[in-house]
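subagent[fold] <- orchestrator: predict structure for attached chain, return tokens only, no commentary.
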Amino acid sequence: MSEPAYKRILLKLSGEALMGKRDFGIDAEVLKTFANEVYKVWELGVQIGIVIGGGNIFRGVEAKAMGINKVSGDYMGMLATVINSMAFQNALEAHGIPTRLQTAIKMEQIAEPFIQRRAIRHLEKGRVVIFGSGTGNPYFTTDTAAVLRAIEIEAEVIIKGTRVDGVFDSDPEKNPKAIMFENVTYDKVIEHNLKVMDQTAFTLCKENNLPIKVFNINHKGNLLKLVNGEKMGTIIS
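subagent[fold] -> orchestrator:
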């Protein structure tokens, strides 16, 4: 078997991806499927960090509609990411994968505080490290948190799993004629406001020369193929 294309990756998943066909919350079968996809990559010896959003449980727009201020709403969203992280941690451990959950907000009873050197050491020992509660600060998305953690753990690439096959010039779920990019620059993404990650995240990637690969995680085997170097999705660099 050939060597994987990457030794250390940061996988970014949206909270919505965990919903499956539900209107909110976590679909148990989707959770198991995603954990199995990660297991196949972990078996290769790839070091894996994971950041999961919280939009399946709570979103800032919901907070605004309820009259909750922005800062409180963002903290509520961070707690939602921890719920998803704990669920995914358990799903991974059911596959026999050793894991650690680190959070940017201290909650010692359920997770370690984020410490860069400790996170890297866990990865070197073959543990999958899940990073919860975003950056720990309001006004920053989990996309930005994913990029920040990827830089801190010295990941070679950010792999973003989505519901579509890559980055398009318009929403492919609304426009059947949308054109997918195989390669696109950070500048073009920022200039055309392509909806993949927020602009803070892209700027961080650009400044640190960190590539992003966007692919459809709902197709079984795609994550393994991507890590093995097969051409798929969109590369942003």
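orchestrator: received. Logging for downstream: The CA atoms of residues 36 and 190 lie 34 Å apart. The chain has one domain: 8-236.
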